[in-house]
Amino acid sequence: MSIPELLVLIMVSIAALMLTAAAALTVARMSRGPSSLDRVVAADVLIAVMIAGLALEAIVNDHSTTLPVMLVLSLLGFAGSVSIARFVADRDRAARRGASDLDREPPPTQESP
Predict the structure, then answer these.
(1) How far apart are CA 42 and CA 22, in angstroms?
(2) What distance in Å separates the CA atoms of residue 52 and residue 30, rounded to the nearest whole number?
(3) Residue 103 confidence (pLDDT)
C-alpha cells in the first residue's frame, strides 16, 4: 500500500468516525427534541449524514454507482424540508389568525323590546 493510499484510508476512517458521532447525536436530538420542528430538522441532518456516508463508501470502493442513490436522498431531503416548512408556516399563520380573533370583542347583541 502506497503512502497516498494510506493517507486516504486514514482520512476516510476519521471522517467515518465523525459521521458516526454526528449520526448518534442527531438520533438523540430526534428522540429528545422538544418540538416537532426540531425532530424534522434532525431528520434532515440525518439524511445529509447518510449521503456523506455513501460518499465515503464510494471513495473507499472507488466506484460511482451510489451517485444515483445520493441524488435521490438529497431530493427527498429537500422536498421533505420544504413541505414541513410550509406546513409549519400554515399552522403558525392559522394560530396567529385564531389568536387575533380571540383578541377582538364580540359584536354587541341587539335586545328585542
Answers:
(1) 10
(2) 19
(3) 54
